[in-house]
């Protein structure tokens, strides 16, 4: 009986911890010092180039010795232009390269 109770408490604590961690990550991104793009960025991927316009708000995600990574949020009603994509390995991200002209 004691083992069952301990297991239930442990599972509840893990669920609470996971939930709080998700909320903290969302809070950290949204409440961090966001940045406004002052000059347009050229965006480049393996499939082509695009442009990020002046005034776009960037949210800091991670910072490294030579590259910073940001998040942007996109609103669209054109869901028919999107299709599901799966990576071979889980937790894979493919950032776009951004630079000034």
TrEMBL record:
It comes from the Bacteria. This is Uncharacterized protein.
